[in-house]
Design brief:
By secondary structure, the chain is α/β, with parallel strands linked by helices. The strands form three sheets. The chain has an eleven-stranded mixed beta sheet with strand order 1-3-2-6-8-7-14-15-13-9-10, sandwiched between helices. A two-stranded antiparallel ribbon has the order 4-5. Strands 11-12 form a two-stranded antiparallel sheet. Helix 14 runs antiparallel to helix 20. It is globular and about 70 Å long. It starts with a helix and ends in a 17-residue tail after the last strand.
């Protein structure tokens, strides 16, 4: 009976894998047809062009739409063969290309002729948006999502969808449908998640611009791990209509959309295209707030806050050094650099961040996993969520005296309800009323105001802090989820935040890891240290996360985020 109950969802997986194989064959066939039109095409000069220059050449008809699409089709297939990053080919890109050719020059958009990649979750008519879940298979979207419509209206050509982590709640990139995506910088490491397919494809040059989503760092971790730029905008700045999610309905720690690209200028161009009146017309819940050129182009001296550690997860030597290096460069450029400390990080992570993600005890998440295979990257979380409340609390009580962070995590997974009496805890009967959820929302709002008050007391323009670096080995994200709060903090605060390259890991950084102990010296700290083990391979780049206030964001060539 159990097998019969599980079979319907699982049985869709082999069919989905076959559909992907067929889609990739059609992709190869289109690339071949386009290649036949220009047999002497050399894709290398096209693939080396930055986005702004590529658009200029397309608008001026110095490059044909066919040559650009062919170049990226061929390169994306090569990258996929190496790292397993694609989930689908968007056949309609050929028809869209032909439609673009008929436009007058005055009708061409800001992204005219640019092939772009989309994270699996973006609805494209006739294609699945799976979230890595078998339940979502064979339910093709009835229409394009709002972001996809706006990108197409601006002339962009979506041509592939990319891989994600199962449920989107892991910062690895693996699911039972499409498998594990690898990091092109080191095939033993993860590209990060959940937008890991985007990060891997961009890092290897198989795409020039991609769209991801971010709930707890899902754009910024892949950008950081793979060596590209990425930004999560303020919640509700871009439309979420037509973006799939394993869990919907949260009002705190909301999922947001955003671009990934090779450089900051490309992110800015994408946001110019997206932040349009067209998006507001398609989704009136999104306010019409155009891209602010006066902020992006400003050169005024800034007051920049910084911290090297959040006081919760001890940063690796390279993470801390990246902040120091950037601060020195900013001082030399004439900016003021002011120390900042994150308030109550442990409380913010367990009670507010995890508390918001699993306010329903993970019931919505577990419902989506019924009849599915649980990916290894999610097994620890799912196993814990499936425990009876009484057992979770009993284990939390035991772990409290051994590893307090494990204890707090188990307590949080019991949801927003709290035991009324000791006897009712043992019976698993808890008080789960809307009042408790509203109290959690209120606590999040109070923390946001506390953080903003501290920001304003220092009169800051921007805040610099470590990213999560370098890339983890495959399988390690599940062992040290707490470390991702370097990124997740800004989802809790609902601040825009971006990732830009800073430096590379040095041999000295690796030597200093021998002295790494962590603040708690528990299993999470040990796993965080272990993942940095070097094998003498090419050392990955270190990234710096930048966060801005609610007022907007730009990232300059000096690795700075500047709000108005």
């Amino acid at each position: 009976m159990l097998f019969w109950w599980q079979a319907p969802a699982r049985s869709r997986i082999p069919r989905a894998q076959k559909r992907r194989e067929e889609a990739l064959r059609r992709m190869a066939a289109l690339a071949e047809r386009l290649r036949q039109q220009e047999p002497e095409l050399d894709p290398k000069p096209i693939l080396e062009l930055p986005l702004e220059k590529l658009v200029q050449k397309l608008l001026a008809d110095e490059l044909s739409l066919e040559s650009v699409l062919c170049s990226y089709l061929e390169e994306a297939m090569k990258v996929h063969q190496e790292v397993n990053c694609l989930t689908d080919f968007l056949d309609e890109c050929e028809e869209q290309l032909q439609a673009l050719k008929k436009l007058k020059k005055s009708e061409r958009g800001l992204l005219y002729g640019v092939p772009i990649s989309l994270k699996d979750v973006y609805d494209c008519m006739g294609h699945d948006s799976t979230c890595g879940l078998a339940q979502f298979l064979e339910k093709p979207a009835a229409k394009d999502g709002v972001v996809v419509k706006v990108l197409k209206a601006q002339g962009a050509i979506p041509f592939v969808k990319t891989n994600i982590s199962q449920t989107l709640l892991s910062f690895d990139c693996s699911n039972p449908i499409y498998g594990q995506t690898l990091n092109p910088q080191n095939l033993k490491k993860t590209p990060g998640g959940s937008s890991g397919g985007e990060g891997a494809l961009l890092a290897k040059g198989g795409s020039i611009l991609g769209m991801g989503t971010d709930t707890g760092g899902s754009i910024r971790i892949p950008a950081s791990f793979c060596g590209v730029c990425g930004i999560r905008v303020t919640g509700y700045r871009l439309s979420n209509s037509g973006v799939a999610s394993a869990v919907k309905g949260r009002k705190t720690v909301v999922t947001v959309t955003g671009p990934l690209a090779w450089d900051v200028e490309s992110l800015a161009l994408c946001l110019r295209a997206l932040l349009s009146e067209h998006m507001h017309r398609l989704d009136p819940t999104v306010p019409f707030l155009p891209f602010r050129e006066e902020v992006y182009s400003s050169n005024r001296p800034l007051r920049i806050g910084y911290y090297e550690s959040d006081g919760f997860t001890q940063p690796s030597p390279s993470m801390a050094r990246a902040v120091k290096l950037t601060c020195r460069l900013l001082r030399d450029a004439g900016h003021q650099v002011i120390p900042f400390s994150v308030p109550r990080t442990e409380y913010a992570f367990f009670h507010l961040f995890l508390g918001s993600l699993f306010a329903d005890e993970g019931a919505s998440l577990l419902e989506k996993l019924k009849g599915d295979i649980v990916d290894p990257s999610m097994k620890n979380t799912v196993t814990s969520l499936r425990l009876p409340d009484s057992l979770k609390r009993f284990l939390a009580w035991i772990w409290k005296y051994i590893e307090p962070r494990v204890s707090q995590g188990l307590e949080t997974l019991c949801g927003v309800g709290r035991a009324l009496t000791r006897g009712r805890v043992l019976l698993g009967t808890l008080d789960r009323t809307p009042k408790k959820l509203w109290e959690l929302h209120t606590a999040v709002e109070e923390y946001q105001q506390e953080f903003i008050a501290k920001w304003r007391s220092l009169d800051l323009d921007v805040l610099l802090s470590p990213a999560l670096d370098p890339a983890f080995f495959v399988g390690y994200p599940a062992k040290t989820q707490e470390s991702s709060f370097y990124l997740g903090l800004y989802n809790l605060l609902n601040f825009p935040a971006g990732i830009v390259p800073v430096t590379t890991v040095t041999p000295q950084d690796e030597k200093e890891l021998a002295f790494y102990r962590g603040y708690y010296r528990d299993r999470f700290d040990k796993s965080f240290q272990e993942h940095f083990a070097s094998e003498g391979k090419t050392l990955p780049k270190v990234r710096l996360r930048i966060a801005a206030t609610y007022r907007g964001l730009r990232v300059s060539s000096t690795v700075t985020s500047v709000p108005p």
